[in-house]
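Re: [ENG-882] Designed sequences occasionally contain unexpected residues at chain ends

Forwarding the minimal case from QA. Structure tokens:
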């Protein structure tokens, strides 16, 4: 995947992550793009805000995209390596590519996705790393709750 395009799409997910943080939630954002580059859906982790443990960023973006006849050619973009729950969503619906802002603060299921044929693009974005490092430092109990620790 073209790195410039991946970074442009990541900017949408970062906007969502910052919105989640401003709402008092976990700063993880995601977006689902169609094969032609159309933004299908975007969202952020709303576990805290909605009291819904299943409302991770990737899930929110997926739900916002609405029903698609097929997910062939789509790309899930997320600010942080997807957890096992969100990795399962990617596999369940055969989303072929995941763009990840960073996997330094949390290394989720993206290796497993790659082993099952999903194209993984890890951008190692310094802004995404700083956002999560600051959050983990400032809210360790909430972070551990979010990752199931």
């Amino acid at each position: 995947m073209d790195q410039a395009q991946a970074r442009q799409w990541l900017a949408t997910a970062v906007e969502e992550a910052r919105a989640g943080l401003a709402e008092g939630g976990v700063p993880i954002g995601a977006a689902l793009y169609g094969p032609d580059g159309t933004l299908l859906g975007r969202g952020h982790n709303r576990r805290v805000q909605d009291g819904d443990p299943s409302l991770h960023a990737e899930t929110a973006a997926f739900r916002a995209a609405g029903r698609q006849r097929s997910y062939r050619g789509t790309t899930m973009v997320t600010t942080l390596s997807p957890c096992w729950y969100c990795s399962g969503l990617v596999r369940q619906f055969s989303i072929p590519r995941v763009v990840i802002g960073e996997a330094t603060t949390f290394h989720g299921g993206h290796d497993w996705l790659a082993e099952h044929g999903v194209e993984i693009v890890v951008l190692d974005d310094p802004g995404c790393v700083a956002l999560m490092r600051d959050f983990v430092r400032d809210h360790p109990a909430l972070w551990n709750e979010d990752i199931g620790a």
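QA comment: On inspection the terminal residues look reasonable. The mean pLDDT is 96. Proposing we downgrade this to a documentation issue.
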